[in-house]
Write a structure and sequence with these properties.
This protein is of the alpha/beta class and about 325 residues long. Helix content is about 40%, strand content about 20%.
Length: about 325
């Protein structure tokens, strides 16, 4: 995907020390004029290596004054900063609202006040649709969120669509399936499960599956996700005001994914890892037992993007990266 559209542009990345942003930033640094990387105070920003000027900003996304300062100069916003735990959101809905929804309204209102109309790409989640009964899932399936986390993500998405209709931003939402691959650890224990299991296997630890583990997941490799965001920015005129389901288009049961991890770890290290079935813990969210495979055909038609990585190849690449980081 050509990034020529970023020439002479200023790009803001929120949650810049996080998983997706850490993979996206190097791509953008090779093309943009200025990159503003925002994360919370104390966050470890990844090193910059591209031709773009990079300015790292430590700030609280709940601070409305922060956005008045930043939006005056930005042309493209990639918004990844978020609280990502379903369980934390259930325990404290008000805190989740403050970090997953209200900052979006603050950005949008700052854009209105300063007469800016940036491209705005937002990371949503496929679980916003709730528990679906058939697969694959595309954008036509009605939304029925069953968690506070998904409700707030959907609310932010709806605000982005409204402000796009008002001509204040040009926004699109990419609802992501289960993302995995090289990069920093997730800040939430219930996110980045595939990466966490790869790390466990490399440490020789047993991999656990709840029950038979026969619930379907769509695992999408991080490189495909990064290309989806750049494709969205490059084709914003075709997709503004809409949401899209982003996944590999291939379903794997959780149990099969764990067996693949065990097999590939053995291939690379000679270490045998056991996969065992355990009873699900009490109070496990029903969203954990969903069946999901993405149909990203609409996004592919409008942008030319398609997922390129198969699960076994992505697991191999992730294992190699994790082993390299240990050296």
């Amino acid at each position: 995907m050509s990034l020529s559209f970023l020439k002479d542009k200023t790009v803001l990345i929120t949650g810049a020390a996080g998983y997706i942003a850490a993979n996206l930033s190097p791509r953008l640094e090779a093309a943009a004029w200025m990159i503003l990387r925002l994360d919370r105070p104390g966050a470890a920003f990844p090193p910059s290596s591209g031709r773009a000027a990079v300015r790292d900003i430590a700030g609280d996304i709940r601070d409305c004054d922060l956005w008045d300062e930043l939006v005056r100069e930005v042309d493209v916003i990639f918004h990844f900063a978020a609280q990502t735990s379903v369980y934390a959101a259930e325990q404290d809905p008000a805190a989740d609202l403050q970090i997953n929804f209200l900052p979006v309204t603050s950005i949008l209102e700052a854009c209105r006040r300063h007469g800016r109309t940036p491209v705005f790409l937002y990371a949503g989640t496929v679980t916003q649709v709730g528990v679906t009964t058939t697969v694959p899932v595309n954008e036509d399936v009605p939304d029925c969120p069953i968690t506070v986390y998904d409700l707030h993500k959907l609310l932010a998405e709806q605000y982005l669509q409204y402000y796009t209709r008002q001509g204040i931003v040009r926004a699109a939402v990419l609802r992501l399936a289960n993302v995995y691959g090289p990069g920093p650890k997730s800040g939430s224990a219930d996110r980045g499960v595939l990466n966490a299991m790869i790390r466990r296997a490399l440490n020789g630890e047993t991999l656990t599956v709840y029950g038979e583990g026969n619930y379907l997941r769509d695992y999408v490799y991080i490189d495909d996700v990064v290309r989806a965001f750049t494709a969205a920015a490059a084709n914003i005129d075709a997709i503004a005001g809409r949401h899209f389901v982003i996944g590999s288009g291939r379903g794997h049961t959780f149990a099969a994914a764990m067996q693949t991890i065990a097999a590939r770890v053995f291939h690379h290290t000679g270490r045998r890892v056991e996969v065992v079935s355990v009873a699900p813990p009490a109070r496990l969210s029903p969203i954990e037992f969903r069946q999901f495979v993405a149909d990203s055909g609409r996004f592919r038609q409008l942008t030319g993007w398609r997922a390129q990585w198969h699960l076994s190849d992505g697991i191999d690449a992730t294992i190699k990266d994790f082993l390299h980081r240990r050296d």
